[in-house]
Amino acid sequence: MTFERRMSEDGEPAIHRVPLPRGAVPHVRTGSQVRPDQVLASRREVGDPVRISLTRPLARRPSEVAELLLVTPGARLDPDQPIARGADGREVRSPGHAIFLTYSEIDGSALLVLLGSETPVIGHVHGTVLQVTRGFISVAVPGARLEGVGGTGDAVHGELAVAVHTHDEELRAGAIDVSAAGKILIGGSRASAETLTRARAMGVAGIVLGGILDKELRDFTAIQRRRREIGGMTGSFAVVLLEGFGKVALDAQLFSWLRAHAGRMASLFGEEHLLYVHEAASPPLRSLMAEIGDRVVIHRRPFQGRSGVLVGVLDDLHETPSGIPAVTGVVRLEDGRLAPIPLVNLEATIAPSRH
Amino acid sequence: MSDHEPMLTAAAKAERAAPHPTAEISLLMDVGSAWTKASVVGRTRGRWRIVAHAAQPTRWGEKALVDVLTERMREAVDHRLRDEVPAILEGAARITCHTPIRPGRLGVAAVTAEVSGSAARTAAESAGWVVVEEAAADDGRSLPERLSSLTAADVDAWLVVGGFDDARPEQALEAAALVAAARRGGRTPVIWAGSAALTDEVAACFEPGVVASIPNPRPDASTEDLAPLRHHLEELLDRLVESGGTRNLAPIGFRRTIGEIAREDRLRVVGVDLGARYATWAFADGTVDPVTVESRVYAAGGMGSPSLATTSAIGRLARSLALPVDELAVADTLQNMRARPASLPYSEEELQVVHAAARLRLAALAEERMPDSVDLLIGSGRVLAAAPTPMRAMRILLDGLRPLGVTQIVLDGAGVLSPLGSLPDDEIAEGIAVLRDDLLVPLGTTVVTRGGRSGQLAIRARLHLVGWPEPQTIEVRAGQVVVMPLPRGERAELDLELEGGATLPAPRRTHHLRAEVTGGSVGLVLDARDAPLLLPRRLDDRREVIAGWLETLLREPVPGRPREVARERETVRRGLRRFRVGRDTQGQEAEDTTTEDDTDTDDGGEQDS
After folding, report:
1. CB contact under 8 A, B344 and A322
2. For A128-157, what is the mean pLDDT?
3. Domain architecture of chain B: domains with CATH
4. If we measure between CA atoms, which residue out of B51, B27, B49 comes closest to residue B435?
5. Cβ of A23 and B179 within 8 Å?
6. Does one domain contain both A230 and A297?
7. Would A331 be classed as within a structural domain?
């Protein structure tokens, strides 16, 4: 998880950008209030290509038609829009919403790609629209925004639910049942590809984890891609990791915060590694520069995901076990033991009350 | 005590009477995507030196960096100036460069993935662009699929390529039409670098003035000339992404300084800068007039490159380690390195994974690009500068790039080459001259041969050291690497005899060679391991060989005796290093953990997993 100070410091909402594919038509305006399931824009999906003969209707040879074209390659066509017109008034019209691609002088045909029915662009967040452009709609989201370090999948939203008992517990497939359908589950230190597959099959909207083995995330992503390619996969699903790759526990403080917000609406963006918890209090902050007395989370093995308190910083550079000399802090781990850790491998976690 | 008083008084008076010292300093800063490197250059005893240096995560901010520099400056300056150090630093002339804020994003539409598409990708990626979407008529996707993917791409520019100059393939027009459809107007520029015969027709697909026509990089089946396209892409990137000028960009500055070093010393110089996101390769030939400089900038070619996260790269990496680290751990380590590029490898296993990744990136960077022989190889980037020992840095360069022939290897340890390159043209040489003593850290000289018959003699070398009556004779068998201590600042004559089919590159393709070699913190490395490195197929054998090389390279040198592969070496350290943490006082505890024996498993041992 990385540092996000703005929301917590001055209470300003987080800003989320909903990307708009080219050609999308926005349905909201600046100042509009939007819900997570609201259609913010719509666009026509690219459909099948078709070839239309231009020579026969225009009664011309293929070499004569090029100069009669009324549209240029790439042009969007409305239904019945003329594509070419002869001097005698004969016309060839578009069979529907389409894109004109090319004209072939070999056979005198035009290559069109038909555009299908309109498909919605859903924002998955609630808040106030700040800006609408050709490329995106930005929404001010009243809530907390957590940035993860990895993830996969789509944009989803759902009720936040906790599926493990402790911050360092692994999320097991058996912990997921039908009651989790449509929810965003908080897992612990890891979930296997099998668990993710089962979660998806049970209709879970998304999973938030401390860590996951990169191999399992890659396997799961590959399975999803293959299923999508062969068709038949419905619904969206996202996974976001907040701490790191491998078996990495969620920070206990953060886990408590997430648990306290169970039942709230949340939005998860797998590819962007983002989690929004709507109408939520400030989450524990992360600061990359820890100071003595700070509660810290360690980011490299063998202590990855462990937390403690930074009790001192060594005067001179200290050699890590890898041999790299580094400015080193001494961390008192939660079990009371001490460990020297390079400061660059630490992140301070600041409880909401101390913001 | 009273006897001393008059003297003290006199000293104090003299000090008061002396003019107050002044400090003339400059601050060189390279703000990278993960680390910021800063060096204070000041005049000391009549010479310009780097008097303080600091490197820290960029996200820690400038104040923290200045605080560290202040502390280090206080130790270096005249004691009368100690209180003034913050003000001196504040007023120092700054020479700053930075990693580009973001790479240019390019969408490519091509006729064929393997010919025009591949050429376009190569040109774009070496000019600092990232190809975010590529569609080719033969990429196996249907027309609607290709159009959908192009439509969904978020790009800064479009590149349309395809068709030889004497042809008019319909697929090329189709590619242009796909881009026109996906682009839907707007200001996004379009580059046409395809068949010259189709230029007008392609331009007609777009609004007037949108298309820039560039000479076809593949004008016929046997020719490939990417230079005009690459040059145009570089210019476009400067205009679109870094509108404030490019001289302050680290990759540009690096290239300029490499060129100047080659010009000054009349050398053939290769420089590689391996950053967290970017990787820059520059080759400058100072032996020709005018000096030629070429470079490649890979926006996603650094240590965080997505190419390291592929299954094949992870497997290759795991097989190149001396320690038995499984692929799962390798993959997680690489991903954590990408997620937190400013963090440091904590354990030996992590270090080996990171260094193996660096070697892999360098190998990709040098692929088909490493000149046959270079005089000077300069390594830059945090992974090299922060290597625990000079030999580790040398190994990354040596194994990653395999510089054939006799090459002096140096490090840009303070990260000053890129900031120096951001100076105006006429000042770069001056900056290099001023900092000559501190600019580069010499690691030593390498002799890398190609070929040779396994186990047979490949190199017979005689090293003539000044002050040594008899030359030292070293024999190196094919597959072996030997290190001779040759301290920094020392020069020696090296007689080489190549045996058993081992060769050096032209123009030194000869069996006898005499060369002057320069010392460094590593020394002289005689490397008969072939290029590229030849490794056994079986994993255990391969690991044994790699561990043997590593052990040879990392063993402390004994003056006058070469380090060479031990026939009966110790068992490779297997398993994972353990760290001990305890409950005693913190300072003592910190010391304990670093002197921990690898196999120690006592109280509270925590195993890396």
Report:
1. yes
2. 92
3. 22-98 (3.30.420.40), 104-240 (3.40.50.360), 444-567 (no CATH), 578-607 (no CATH)
4. B49
5. no
6. no
7. yes
Same domain? For A272 and A164 the reply is: yes
Q: Across the beta sheet with B457-465, what order do the strands follow?
A: B472-477, B457-465, B491-498, B512-518
For residue B503, the cross-strand partners are B450
CATH of the domain at A49: 2.40.50
- Cα-flanking dihedrals φ and ψ of residue B209, to 5°? 85, -5
Residue type, B327: E
Partners of A300 on chain B (C-beta within 8 Å) are 336, 343-347, 350
Which range is least confidently modeled, A190-204, B26-40, B461-475?
Answer: B461-475
A28 assigned to some structural domain: no
What integer is the mean pLDDT of A261-288? 92
Q: Which two tokens stand for residue B5?
A: 């008083």
Question: Could you tell me if A300 lies within 8 Å of chain B, comparing CB atoms?
Answer: yes
Rg of chain B over all Cα atoms, to the nearest angstrom: 27
Look at residues B223, B272, B275 and name the one whose alpha carbon lies nearest to residue B116.
B223
CB proximity list for B500: less than 8 A, separation 6 or greater: B452, B453, B456, B457, B458, B478
Q: What is the mean pLDDT of residues B261-274?
A: 94
- Closest CA in chain B for residue A311: B586
Question: CA of A129, closest CA in chain B: separation in Å?
Answer: 21
pLDDT at A38 over 90: yes
Judge: B332–A22 Cβ closer than 8 Å, yes or no: no
Q: What is the CATH number of the domain that holds A298?
A: 2.30.30.30
Q: Report chain B residues whose CB lies below 8 A from the CB of A304.
A: 336
**Given an 8 Å threshold on Cβ–Cβ distance, is B332 in contact with A76?**
no
Closest Cα in chain B to A288:
B60
For residues A185 and A269, membership in a common domain is answered with yes
Which of A48, A47, A65, A44 lies closest to A56 in space, CA to CA? A65
Is A289 found in the same domain as A272? Answer: no
pLDDT for B92 equals 86
A66 Cβ under 8 Å from any chain B Cβ: no
A188 and chain B: CB distance < 8 Å anywhere? no
Q: Rounded CA gap, A165 and A162, in Å?
A: 8
Query: Nearest Cα to A281, choosing from A259, A254, A255, A257?
Result: A257
pLDDT of residue B574: 29
Candidates B142, B347, B582; nearest CB to A321:
B347
Q: Do B594 and A340 touch (CB under 8 A)?
A: yes
The range of the structural domain enclosing residue A301 comes to 285-354
A213 touching B, CB under 8 A? yes
Query: What residues 243-272 of chain A have any CB closer than 8 A to a CB of chain B?
Result: 244-247
Cβ–Cβ contact A231 with B under 8 A: no
Rounded-to-integer distance, Cα B291 and Cα B276, Å: 30
Spatial contact of A12 and A34, defined as CB atoms under 8 Å apart? no
Q: How many domains does chain A have?
A: 3
Q: Where are the alpha helices (DSSP H) in chain A?
A: 6-10, 55-58, 62-65, 193-201, 214-230, 252-260
DSSP letter string, B133-188:
EEEETTSS--HHHHHHHHHH---SEEEEEE--TT---HHHHHHHHHHHHHH-SSS-
Q: Are residues A293 and A269 in the same domain?
A: no
- Contact between residue A77 and residue A100 where contact means Cβ atoms under 8 Å apart: yes
Would you say residue A345 lies in a domain?
yes
